[in-house]
Predict the 3D structure of the following.
Amino acid sequence: MNISMTRIQAILMKDYKEFSRNYAVSSMVLLPIILAFLYNQSGASSINAYLLPINITFSMVTAYIQCCLIAEEKEKNTLRSLMLSPASLGDILIGKSLFVLIVTMIVVAISIFIVGYKPSNLLILAISLILSTVFYIALGTICGLFSKSIMEGSIIVLPVIIIFSFGPIALNFASTYPILKIAEWLPSSQLLLLAEALEGKYSMIDVFIPMITIVVWSLLSWFLAAFIYKKRMVD
């Protein structure tokens, strides 16, 4: 697979221009920041409170914006042209993901700063946040490929926002409703478990299992995204 940095940069700049012109999409970056500010003002200091704005960022910023950017391409019939261009699959997927990755990292960093979260091991947490971002970008890509317009994409991505943002909250009811224990294996819940482990005495297993779980989710999601993308090329 040939990777062209020139093509990736061109796709990145195109996404930036579309994002800056669409205020309905770009305004979504403010929601996690506002939530982090409210948590800071309320004096919340638990790991759950720290991680909620981050998980909200992943679903309502990362997945949502990625979905809408791809859906907008389909709505304007420019995605087909991009598929038929000399750009390779890698060029397109990386180019369409890089802008959202940058935006996500900025919003997550601002949210962490505002809420006052000071992780005990910043390096491990940073790696897990990047891996989570990669996963949510894949989810947004899948939702975008199934959408025909921004409006439709906004609806399709709603299950992602609901399921993956509030997975850790579902764990609080797992004792009453045992079926909710499955939420423990969601990337958002694994990120919370990892953050909790880092605050105490943790072993390699405590770090390894959440990391591997998020990586597996990411790989499966990207394989599915690439499969759907290739299918759309021949439709």
The radius of gyration is 18 Å. The chain has a mean pLDDT of 85. The chain has twelve helices and no strands.
